[in-house]
Write a structure and sequence with these properties.
Mean pLDDT: 84
Number of helices: 6
Radius of gyration: 21 Å
Strand order of the largest sheet: 8-9-11-10-12-13
Low-confidence stretches: 1-35
Largest sheet: 6 strands, mixed
CATH architecture of the largest domain: 3-Layer(aba) Sandwich
Distance between the termini: 31 Å
Number of strands: 15
Helix content: 10-25%
CATH topology of the largest domain: Rossmann fold
CATH superfamily of the largest domain: Alpha/Beta hydrolase fold, catalytic domain
């Protein structure tokens, strides 16, 4: 293992900087979502958190109430946003947001209602630009087919981490978030090839190109996951993360920094470190790689998996190696032919999504 590590180290340093170069992560895991103080007001949503609204019919919002421990009922101070953008004549998923601040400046935790305007079909994906929600990043969203059927039902969540080339702040695109509409897993929603029987809420936050895999990116991702848990009807015991290239490196880093949150993770075409596998032993992982990848050597991904398996993990880490595909072997997220992959490692079976659903935290 030592010979393998030293042979791959220069490439790893170029790709993933300190995290893959043997540097120690001395920052304490942070990024917990902002919580209102004990004396902050409390918002209570009236009616359902999710509403299925027939196309072309009038929407009447049920509203919310606000109670402050010192000032009592401050419902009149609630600020509602999103109603003006709710178009009952256009199929889509709309967010109605409720916020309130007391006279001392203490702010309640935001509550959100999702209104699914439908003519029998539902929006495949929605853009949530930075600043239109309390999320620390803009993101794309997919809600499962039956999300509004039972407003109390909790769904599994997939957070997908895109590669570096789709990050914010490249400066030459007028609408940065738009580049995520046909990327990676969201390409399947746009093309209509996603299997609607899969019950996942899927969110793809857009990272900044200025930080890549640094502390800020990791903290913002933790804040984003916490935002998702409090905003969507998701099951906290079924939080999953997937990622491609730099997004795979960030996925590895996330389960290193926050080892007790995710139920399972799937890094694709990216690796983390050959020395810190024991820190990731508590999260089931299935890594994918193409043998002819010219950017991330497949042996480096295998080495990361191997270090986890040397640390008595809660579940043996899996590694699937495809003979071809290069770095951009994203066809693996579309795979329907099970049993593929180098027989020396783990073949592709079961499918990724069935494997994820086998895991609860």
């Amino acid at each position: 293992m030592g010979a393998l590590s030293s042979r791959l180290l220069p490439v790893a340093c170029l790709l993933f900087l300190v995290s893959a170069c043997g540097g120690k992560n001395t920052e304490a895991p942070g990024g917990a979502s902002a919580r209102s103080s004990p004396n902050a007001p409390v918002l209570t949503l009236l009616g359902s958190r999710v509403v299925k609204q027939p196309l072309g019919t009038k929407y009447v919002d049920a509203g919310a109430t606000a109670e402050d421990p010192r000032e009592g009922d401050i419902t009149s101070k609630i600020v509602v946003s999103g109603l003006s953008a709710l178009d009952v004549d256009t199929v889509g998923d709309y967010l109605v947001r409720y916020n309130v601040t007391d006279t001392s400046g203490r702010r309640a935790t935001e509550v959100v209602r999702i209104v699914r305007v439908s003519d029998g079909t539902l929006a495949a994906q929605s853009a949530r630009p930075l600043g239109t929600t309390q999320a620390p990043m803009g993101y794309f969203e997919h809600l499962p087919l039956h999300y509004a059927d039972d407003p109390s039902e909790k769904f599994p969540l997939i957070v997908w981490n895109h590669g570096w080339g789709h990050s914010l702040d490249f400066g030459h695109r007028p609408y940065e978030l738009d580049v995520l509409a046909n990327v990676d897993i969201f390409e399947m929603f746009a093309a209509g090839t996603w299997d609607d029987s899969r019950p996942f809420v899927v969110l793809m936050p857009q990272r900044s190109s200025q930080d890549i895999l640094g502390k800020e990116a990791r903290v913002e991702l933790k804040r984003f996951v916490d935002y998702a848990v409090r905003t969507y009807n998701v099951d906290p015991s079924r939080l999953y993360m997937m990622g491609f290239s730099d997004g795979a490196g960030l996925t590895w880093r996330y389960i290193h920094d926050y080892p007790n949150q995710l139920a399972a993770a799937v890094p694709i075409s990216g690796y983390f470190s050959f020395t810190e596998g024991c820190s990731m032993r508590s999260t089931p992982v299935w890594a994918f790689q193409a043998k002819d990848d010219p950017i991330v050597p497949w042996a480096s991904t295998f080495a990361t998996v191997d270090t986890i398996n040397r640390c008595d993990p809660v579940e043996r880490a899996r590694f699937t190696l495809f003979p071809t595909g290069g770095h951009y072997s994203l066809s693996i997220v579309h795979l329907s032919n099970l049993g593929e992959g180098d027989p020396a490692y783990d073949k592709y079976e079961p499918d990724i999504y069935s494997w994820l659903l086998q895991h609860h935290r």
